[in-house]
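Researcher: Go.
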Amino acid sequence: MHLYGIPNCDTIKKARKWLSDNNIDYTFHDYKKEGVDRKQLTTWCKALGWETLLNKRGTTWRIVPDDQKASINETTAIDLMIENPSMIKRPVLTSDNLCLVGFSADEYAAKLS
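Model: Structure:
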């Protein structure tokens, strides 16, 4: 199981605590330091939809020019997320047959128990 995100994010901290408290082994991938490649983002977009994966609530999205926002599609969204990993909603939790975005203790319990 892999947990992708940024270590100082409060939601990541909650997810990591939940996983640890429930004795679930995972590998943490800091995509600010390690990045995320196009293949991985494309896989996530197929599983979740690029609209779900793209964080439009953060400060990084706010600085994207309006014309670029208006013409966003899966390809340009992936380009933006590669260039600015903080634009990826977090956390992303994956395993062989699982791909979740965001953290909800109830959803984690339902999917991981």
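Model: The chain has a mean pLDDT of 95.
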